[in-house]
Design goal:
Elements (H helix, E strand, L loop, with lengths): L14 H18 L3 E2 L5 E3 H7 L5 H6 L2 E3 L11 E4 L4 H10 L8 E10 L11 E10 L9 H17 L5 E7 L3 H15 L8 H9 L13 H5 L10 H17 L4 E2 L11 E9 L7 E7 L3 H4 L7 E7 H9 L3 H5 L5 E5 L4 H14 L4 E3 L6 H11 L3 E5 L1 H6 L1 E6 L5 E5 L3 H8 L1
Parallel strand pairs: 1-5, 7-8, 12-13, 12-14
Antiparallel strand pairs: 2-4, 3-4, 5-6, 6-11, 7-9, 9-10, 10-11, 14-15, 15-16
Helix pairs in contact: 1-5, 5-9
The structure holds histidyl-adenosine monophosphate.
Length: 428
């Protein structure tokens, strides 16, 4: 038997109703902040991620699904393509390709699958879904302002509250700008020199190529060493410090609570200044519902104009998981209002007519078949979870009134055709 590939999964009903509920709340909330949707390709040039996300990150060095393109001209042989492991690089590529700066400030969001070859576990998949948003544009349009950072974070708090997800925690840090990074990397290298021999091979390599990435290390034995390393917060220059303080002040003014965490450096190289994660206790080891931050140099790194930006991506799989723990999930799972049971030969057509009328009134109707005995119709109606069963037999059609039975209480009444929709809507 062929099964779904390890790390991928089928999303089945009724859980898919939760996914749709989340996505429609997202679209409503993002709309109020003037975000518009962008859809970028699922695969891109490998170079986009190597240059955008960073060669030394776990994502690029270990986790990408990459292959050589076939059927290209010999001169282009060796052209590599990659299933997108994240969507920010794709959005910034599109920003540059379509000269989106002509519109001033761009506020773009996306919903879609991403691919990383990580070790699958609860909340971690090889095909997973992100809901993300990016604000990008020339500094003259306000893209660099701490007001943008705070606006994004407040929007996320609003979304989580609206979904009824309680108990989230916003962890906030500033990872500084390239100026700060030079001094910080220098200090890190120095601090690592005497101890790096005792660390894992990845850290030994990182210490030389990109010392900041040492903070991504998950090896337990290395943690006491990492704990003692210098923190970026000690190296912020004046503009970065002021920017970070301003973000915090707006957050306090709008009532979004946060925790400062100067160990949070995020696993992608493009970040500058504000970096953040929202965590949720119910998720277990993979407790980050979402992550994001500023990437003021990304457009230039990809060959575009200066275009400061900030954004985030929510792990939709994890968001739905934390929603399942909350009370609002129950209300979202729709069951049919009614199961229509045609009783006897020739009744399929009458039942279809009736179903058509009722569905036009937005009722959720499941339709049976005239070949079913009444007992079987009852069993099927119960199985699909219908609230009512409606019997459509010859006598009912003649009388233009139908037997309507409440499957929970067993109460049965005869209802005239014209009164059916109103009656059931009233009961909803
Ligand atoms: P990221 O932290 O790599 O950031 O991913 C964001 C979120 O995606 C994570 O917090 C997590 O919820 C979810 N996620 C990541 N990997 C997996 C996985 N294997 N299985 C399930 N969920 C996962 C980014 O991707 C950045 N592009 C975010 C961003 C946008 N920064 C600025 N703009």
């Amino acid at each position: 038997m062929i099964k779904a590939v390890r790390g991928t999964r089928d999303l089945l009903p009724p859980e898919t109703a939760l996914w749709n509920f989340v996505e429609s709340a997202v679209r409503d909330v993002f709309r109020a902040y003037n975000f518009e949707e962008i859809r970028t390709p699922i695969f891109e040039d490998t170079q986009l991620f190597a240059r955008g996300v960073g060669e030394e990150t776990d994502i690029v060095s270990k986790e990408m699904y990459t292959w050589e393109d076939r059927g290209r001209a010999a001169s282009e042989k060796g052209h590599m393509l990659t299933l997108r492991p994240e969507n920010t690089a794709g959005v910034v590529r599109a920003y540059i390709e379509h000269k989106l700066w002509d519109r001033g400030l761009n506020k773009l969001y996306y919903i879609g699958p991403q691919f990383r070859r990580e070790r699958p576990q609860k909340g971690r998949y090889r095909q997973f879904y992100q809901i993300g948003a990016e604000v990008i544009g020339p500094a003259s349009a306000g893209s660099e302002s701490p007001a943008r950072d705070a606006e994004i974070l407040e929007m996320l708090a609003t979304l989580l509250d609206r979904l009824g997800i309680a108990g989230w925690n916003l962890e906030l840090n500033s990872v500084g700008c390239p100026n700060d990074r030079v001094a910080f990397n220098e200090a890190l290298r120095k601090a690592l020199e005497p101890v790096v021999g005792k660390m894992c091979v990845d850290c030994q390599r990182r210490a030389v190529t990109n010392p900041l990435r040492v903070f991504d290390c998950k090896v337990p034995e290395d943690q006491p060493i990492i704990e003692k390393l210098p923190r970026i917060s000690q190296f912020l220059d004046e503009p970065c410090r002021t920017h970070f303080v301003a973000v915090q002040e707006i957050l306090k003014a709008v009532g979004v609570s946060f925790t400062l965490n100067d160990r949070l450096v995020r696993g992608l190289d493009y970040y500058t200044r504000t970096a953040f994660e929202f965590t949720h206790g119910a998720l277990g080891a993979q407790n980050a519902i979402l992550g994001g931050g500023r990437y003021d140099g990304l457009s230039e790194a990809l060959g575009g104009p200066a275009a400061p930006g900030i954004g985030f991506a929510i792990g939709e799989d994890r968001l739905v998981m934390s929603l399942q723990e909350s009370a609002s999930a129950e209300a979202v799972l729709h069951k049919p209002d009614m199961y229509i049971a045609p009783l006897g030969l020739g009744m399929n057509a009458e039942a279809a007519r009736l179903a058509r009328e009722l569905r036009r009134h937005d009722l959720v109707v499941e339709l049976g078949d005239e070949s079913f005995r009444l007992k079987k119709s009852f069993e099927l109606a119960t199985k699909v979870g219908a609230k009512y069963i409606l019997i459509v037999g010859e006598n009912e059609v003649k009388a233009d009134a139908f037997a309507l039975k409440d499957l929970a209480t067993g109460e049965q009444v005869s209802v005239a055709r014209g009164d059916l929709a109103r009656r059931i809507q009233g009961e909803r």
